[in-house]
Write a structure and sequence with these properties.
By secondary structure, the protein is of the alpha+beta class. It is about 30% helix and about 15% strand. The protein is built from 14 helices and 18 strands. The chain has helices at about 20-25, 30-45, 90-105, 135-145, 155-160, 175-180, 195-205, 210-220, 235-250, 250-265, 325-335, 350-355, 380, 425-445, and strands at about 10, 50-55, 60-70, 85, 125, 165-170, 270, 285, 290, 320-325, 340, 345, 365-370, 375, 390-395, 400-405, 410-415, 415-420. The radius of gyration is 22 Å and the shape is globular.
């Protein structure tokens, strides 16, 4: 850790409502204990900043706290209206738009994506030297290898066993449901396979100018598995956004505005900056020291990051949104209310139930995956990290959210940190664990 003196500002903010202290006391007996945990993650240079916001179902703030390292951000004012790059927290929004299109009969879950993107007809599958798909090879290698080094992205043994890859025909048709469940075979440039990562990195999606250019590039790339055979996290939701655009003849930006932002009165979600929006710098802890990230370091899709400028015409449904904690909490409250917010119904209740129903990773001790919502298991409760049944998710720069459907509140943790250093690890579990310790104590006294 750097030896210079840290200057950080922390503040506990009260909402201007006479009912707010009562609602707060209903959850937390000692919010300052939570504050101190948040503060320490910034004081020890685990993060350059943290902003935490919890809202109940009416939108009343029941907890809010910020901590800022003033050596890195000397003048930034961080609050619920600060804009953050939310990366994969875009996914659940894109999925909700797709479910709305399905309700309207414009798309079906079992539709082949070739119906909307014929350029993807005949995609090949990358297999290892033994003919096994790379996704299957990855799973079996990690399950059976006791000598795994722990360096997932640069493990020599797994790359040597699979590169150069061979290409075979895809045995199954890719459907819309496969995209939602990350079972289509699209991936990021962060697989264990150097030769596969190099293909995607060379295309550098974020340097392209149109959706058509991205689709053309993806059409030349192999899948990591046969569709529907495994689940493998990747750019599947980006393709889902392209399907939504082709099915409606509208951009994802238009769909976001017309179907979510305007009718639900949510202002803090965007694909494009306006002239008065300045995004925070990108920070890295890759070297175990907090520093500003270098150009090209966030290489999940190549050397460039999404373009948020006003003239941007590429809207990446899996990665490309910016949002405020206030705006994202509004969206989460819509989900918690099973599709309704501010007097407007966006999704049918059945669609939201599908989003948190078990769909994949059903044998995982930590929970299961819904439609890109991770639902926590009893293990969270046992380890003191929260509770079972929370709907959770996060983004590439360490943003995080959860929904507590039992107690009817939502939580958002915002920062801008790539590759968290050791002193920043386990943040969500410790912060949320402290909250739920107090929640459980309150509930036991009732």
């Amino acid at each position: 850790m750097n030896s210079h003196k840290l200057f950080f500002v922390t503040a506990f903010l009260l909402v201007a409502s006479c009912e707010e202290p009562e609602s707060k006391s209903a959850y937390f007996s000692s919010p300052e204990k939570i504050d101190s945990i948040v503060d320490e993650f910034v004081a020890n240079e685990g993060f350059p900043l943290l902003y935490i916001r919890l809202e109940n179902e009416e939108g009343t703030v029941i907890y809010e706290h910020d901590a800022v390292n003033r050596n890195f951000l000397p003048d930034e004012k961080i609050n619920g209206d600060t804009w953050f790059r939310v990366w994969s927290m875009s996914k659940i929004i894109t999925i909700s738009i797709m479910l709305d299109l399905i309700e309207d009969g414009l798309v079906q879950l079992d539709d082949p994506i070739e119906k909307y993107i014929p350029e993807f007809k005949g995609l090949k599958v990358a297999v290892a030297n033994n003919g096994m798909s790379l996704a299957t090879y990855t799973r079996e290698y990690f399950e059976n290898s006791s000598g795994f080094s722990g360096d997932y992205l640069n493990n020599v043994a797994i790359s040597e066993a699979t590169c150069p890859i061979r290409l075979v025909d895809n045995e199954n048709t890719i459907t819309v449901l496969d995209l939602i469940n990350h079972q289509a075979g699209f991936y990021y440039a962060t697989t264990p396979f150097k030769c596969l990562n190099e293909i995607l990195a060379k295309e550098d999606f974020n340097a392209l100018q149109t959706n058509q250019e991205i689709i053309n590039a993806m059409a030349k790339m192999p899948l990591v598995m046969h569709a529907g055979s495994e689940d493998f996290y990747g750019t599947n939701t980006t393709v889902l956004g392209f399907v939504a655009e082709r099915a409606t003849g509208k951009t994802l930006d238009q769909l976001l505005n017309e179907r979510i932002k305007i009718p639900l009165d949510i202002k803090g979600l965007r694909y494009k900056k306006t002239a008065n929006i300045d995004l925070l710098p990108t920070f890295s802890g890759k070297d175990s020291l907090l520093r500003k990230a270098t150009k090209g370091e966030l290489d999940i899709m190549g050397a460039n990051v999404p373009n948020y400028e006003e003239d941007n015409q590429i809207f990446l449904g899996g990665e490309g949104m910016i949002g405020t904690a206030n705006g994202y909490a509004d969206f989460l409250r819509m989900l918690m209310n099973h599709g309704e917010l501010n007097g407007h119904r966006f999704l049918d209740e059945a669609s939201v139930r599908d989003m948190y129903a078990p769909h994949s990773q059903l044998d995982n001790d930590w929970g299961y995956n819904g439609y890109n919502l991770w639902i926590t298991s009893e293990k969270q409760l046992e380890l003191g990290y929260g509770d079972a049944g929370l709907w959770t998710g996060g983004g590439y720069e360490q943003t995080h959210f959860w929904v507590d459907p039992k107690r009817k509140f939502v939580g958002v943790i915002m920062t801008q940190m790539f590759d968290t250093p050791p002193q920043g690890m386990n943040r969500d579990n410790l912060v949320r664990g402290s909250m739920y310790q107090q929640i459980f104590e309150k509930e036991q006294t009732k």
